[in-house]
Amino acid sequence: MSDIAEARSERVDLRMTPDAKRTLQRAAAVSNKTVTEFLVDAGLNAAFDALADRRVFKLNAKQWKAFMAALDNPPKDNPGLRKLLAHKPVWER
User: Fold this and answer.
1) Cα–Cα distance, 46 to 54 (Å, whole number)
2) Which of 8, 38, 84, 92 could form a disulfide with 33 if both were Cys (CB 3.0 to 4.6 A apart)?
3) Neighbour tally for 7: CB within 10 Å
4) In angstroms, rounded to a whole number, what is the distance separating the alpha carbons of residues 63 and 66?
5) pLDDT of 89 above 90
6) How far is Cα 38 from Cα 29, in angstroms, rounded to an integer?
7) 3-state secondary structure string across the chain
8) Cα separation, 48 vs 55, whole angstroms
9) CA distances from 25 to 11, 35, 77 (A)
């Protein structure tokens, strides 16, 4: 439900370091939001992302068979991907 249709009535208490709080306050300010708005928006986005991989999907018998075959077969060798994954990320160099 949207915030317009349903009043906010639930509380969540958080404990964090002063540095973490200041960072959240700065991020909220540059986003033109209150800390509450910033945390709710960011938290809901993270929650939707975490739940997205756990949604139900339906396959017919043929699609299910192909899906199971793909899971059972090892991936094909991909030299380009292997080369990319061999490099250290920029932040570890």
Assistant:
1) 14
2) 38
3) 6
4) 5
5) no
6) 9
7) CCCCCCCCCCCCCCCCCHHHHHHHHHHHHHCCCCHHHHHHHHHHHHHHHHHHCCCCCCCCHHHHHHHHHHHHCCCCCCHHHHHHHHCCCHHHC
8) 10
9) 18, 6, 47
- Residue 4, amino acid: I
Q: Pull the structure tokens for residue 89.
A: 């990320």
pLDDT tens digits, 22-57: 999 999 999 999 999 999 999 999 999 889 877 777
What is the token pair recorded at 58?
A: 């339906």
Q: Per the structure block, which two tokens stand in for 50?
A: 């975490």
How far apart are the C-alpha atoms of 20 and 26, rounded to whole Å?
10
> How far apart, in whole angstroms, are the C-alpha atoms of residue 21 and residue 2?
27
What is the mean predicted confidence (pLDDT) over 50-67? 88
How far is Cα 39 from Cα 27, in angstroms, rounded to an integer? 10
Q: What is the pLDDT of residues 8-22, one digit of tens each?
A: 889 999 999 999 999
